[in-house]
Amino acid sequence: MDAANAYGLMAAYSCYGERTTDIVAPGSRILSTWLTDKALYYPEFSDNNLFYEGFEGSDSLKFYTSADPSKGELCGEISGKKVYNGKNSLKLQGTAEGNAVYSEPVDLTQASGFDSSEAYRFSLNVAGEGGHSCGQAEVMVRLTDGSFALLGDGTSLARGRDGGFNSFNTGAAQILPKNTDYANFQLCLTLKGLDMVFPNGHGEYVYEDGPVYIDNLGIGSTTLPYNYSDGTSMATPMITGAVAVLAGRYPDDSAAMRTARTIGSVTKYDEFKDKCVSDGFINLDQSVTDNPYPVVNAANIAEDTVTIDGYFFGKNPTVTIDGKAAGIQSSEAFEDGGQRLVVSRPADVSGMARVSVTSSEKGEGHQSYDFGKVKNVDYFENTLPLPEDPAFYDIDAYQMVGYGDYLYCIPHYYTFPELVEKLWRFNVNTKAWDQVTLPENTVMFNATAVVWQDKLLIYSYNTGVEDPAAAKPVSIGMILTYDGSTWTQTPGWNDKTFPNSAALVNNDGQLLAVSGIFNNTFNNTVYSVSLENHTLTPMGNTLRAVSGPLVSAGHGQLIVTGGLESGNQNGTLPGVERLTLDNGVYVPSELDMTGIKTGNLSGFASAAVKDGFMLVGPETTDASTDTYTLGTSGGLTPYKKRVDNAALANPSAAAYKGQFYVLARTYTSDSNFIFKSTAVQTEEPVNPDNPVNPDNNNSQAANVGTGITDTLPLAGAAVLLLLCAAGIMVWARKKRKLD
Q1: Beta sheet of 305-311, edge-to-edge order
Q2: Which CATH number goes with the domain that contains 496?
Q3: I want to staple 603 with a disulfide (CB 3.0 to 4.6 A). Which of 85, 106, 249, 572 is the partner?
Q4: Pairing outcome for strands 576-582 and 557-561
Q5: Is residue 257 part of a domain?
Q6: What sign has the CA pseudo-torsion 205, 206, 209, 210?
């Protein structure tokens, strides 16, 4: 789902994809249920406001440039351009630094129902100019001593949201101070023009000069357990409701046909063109839902023909592929309403190409598919097998680490964690997959690994109670080492002593932990780790505070990519940082992304090779490659080969034993994963002392040594419940909502 804002524009925060999302629905300022103990006051829904102002008449509340109206100038103008409630709002001027305006004093002690013992709240709604601007008002109120103070918890900022009106984010921010001067009630609003930009895949506020609209000012005490929310998480229930309406309207539709009817029941707008499959906004008018646009569900591509499956193709459809006419050889209709067209494959169609079906009754619908290698483009020469076990695909992403004859796949998530009891590994010689069982009663999620002192070193989390008398479970850090046959644990680490979701890296014999979450705060520190002394020593910083970054080390440098920032919910971060060691401190620099599609949120992955680094990620703007080389100085250079025609999501990379391996999610394969490699010059790998071969590793615990201590027995379901209780996974819930 894509989310639209209140002005019919694609919401600034919305995820979108020409091939990967289907339809646009309302997603901004959706009134949603909220926690009762965090209820908010809404003047527009209250029938007992002590005071209300909607700027609907000439006698509306006035604002001045001074707290003393006689010494200031009247400011603001009534406007109908942007409104929250009613027909008008007050347009004031905001500045980047903040423009203070004051309301005229009002004696609220004479208002009907005034009770001096009541704990009153104040609310207003704020918006910026245009379709995406925000606007901000810091709210202060006059006290009985004549000074002005912030409301409630001291965070009384009201910010617009994506062009629309918004109020305070919490109920606590609405509470008026006990010594508010109700006999001379007066507001001080510090107004700032505000815009939101997305340089790193999440919103950042930029202050600027610009209009700020205010509306719906009220004072009262009644609260409601609702809050306005934004995001594709709000658009999704809109579509769920649409599906329910269509189910009642067309009860005989199969599930597949109902899905297609939903996607095809849109009004198309240029604003949404190439932002989703349908190019349109959901429309439940029956004249639309009776005759949806064609929906293409599948294309089976052969040498000379393409077989297209879908719905609502009509009686006399026409087909184009990559803009070229494709003659229909045969047509077939199915009992559930589906249709199949077999068409001639046009000559010289390759790469990602659009399959378009146009019905004479309605119009055009499409989807894009991979028609194979593009002429004059070189690709990674090795397409490698993937595991047959569907459990492999439950993990969002993996970190690949070479050790012995294997690439170990370490679970690395970006949405909702899966608890892992076995590690997948790929034999680089036999091209076969098998699994290594973790120690008994040990589970792992969002781990990081590195080869350290001739062993595979993994840091992850288990969950349990260090103190049996403790009221709440706490997260228990696990540092495990594996020598090819035996697991050993280094006890004593937890989320208070080691950053959760950091990246472990071995840089020329120095063990480092990069970024992660420390004491519930995203951090950007590079730590030197002493396992023996249980100490972390800061050695510099990255440019961004992230969790789950991908870090490669070599030639005295760190290459940092991917990861999530606290406000980002749209995918791993784009961009690349190079950290260089200078007088014992890692100094970061951001690499130039000129010529690369920086809007892609799939992020990069990197690996050290003999003369520098190899990276994979978003493709170049000319679509020539998705792979790059990086020397020890200078910038990214497009590589002569590319991994795949499709965009790569959550990529992982490893340079090992003469190959550069890439494992990534993609939306064109049946498994949604691809695994490929190409020959490169690599550094010599580290081999384990006691390797275990697949023929004597049958995924049973007997193949894992008993050197582990202090393990914490927990059943999988109990682990999940304890994780929730501990709050470890709250930040990682799969959602697209902006808080």
Answers
A1: 295-301, 305-311, 338-344, 328-333
A2: 2.120.10.80
A3: 572
A4: antiparallel
A5: no
A6: negative
Residue range of the domain that includes 72: 35-224
Instruction: Give me the half-sphere count of Cα atoms (radius 13 Å) on the Cβ side of residue 571.
Output: 24
Cα 515 to Cα 334: distance, rounded to the nearest angstrom: 54
What band does 400 get if pLDDT is binned at 50, 70 and 90?
very high
Q: Which amino acid is it at 278?
A: S
Q: How many domains does the chain have?
A: 2
| Rama region for 76: left / alpha / beta (φ>0; ψ in -120 to 50; rest) | left
How many angstroms separate the Cα of 244 from the Cα of each of 263, 276, 279?
Answer: 14, 22, 22
φ/ψ of 725, rounded to 5, equals -65, -35
Q: What is residue 444's DSSP assignment?
A: B
* DSSP 8-state assignment for residue 669: S
10 Å CB burial of residue 81 (0-12, 13-18, 19+) is: exposed
CA-based R_g, the chain, Å: 29
Alpha helices (H) in 32-83, listed in sequence order: none
Q: Taking the chain, what is the end-to-end CA distance rounded to the nearest angstrom?
A: 18
**CB-CB contact of 185 with 141 (8 Å):** yes
Is residue 209 included in any domain, yes or no?
Answer: yes
Which pLDDT tens digit goes with each residue over 42-82?
Answer: 999 999 999 999 999 989 999 999 999 999 999 999 999 99
- Which SS3 state, helix, strand or coil, does residue 716 take? helix
| Helices (runs of H) and strands (runs of E) counted in the chain | 4, 56
Rounded Cα distance, 382 and 352, in Å? 20
SS3 53: strand
| Final residue of a structural domain among 182, 208, 224 | 224
Q: Quick check: 629 and 660 in contact, CB under 8 A? A: no
**Domain limit, last residue, from 224, 243, 263:** 224
Contact 424, 392 (CB under 8 A): yes
Residue 123: inside a domain: yes
pLDDT digits (tens, 9 = 90+) for 113-160: 999 999 999 999 999 998 888 899 999 999 999 999 999 878 889 999
Residue at 738 is within a domain: no
> How many Å apart are CA 449 and CA 659, to the nearest integer?
19
3-state secondary structure of 203: coil
Q: What is the CATH classification number for the domain harbouring 48?
A: 2.60.120.260
Instruction: Report the alpha-carbon angle 514-518-523, nearest 5.
Output: 50
**Upper half-sphere CA count for residue 349 (Cβ side, 13 Å):** 25
C-alpha closest to that of 383 among 679, 677, 647, 617: 677
* Strand spans (E) along 263-302: 266-268, 280-282, 295-301
d(CA 114, CA 107): 11
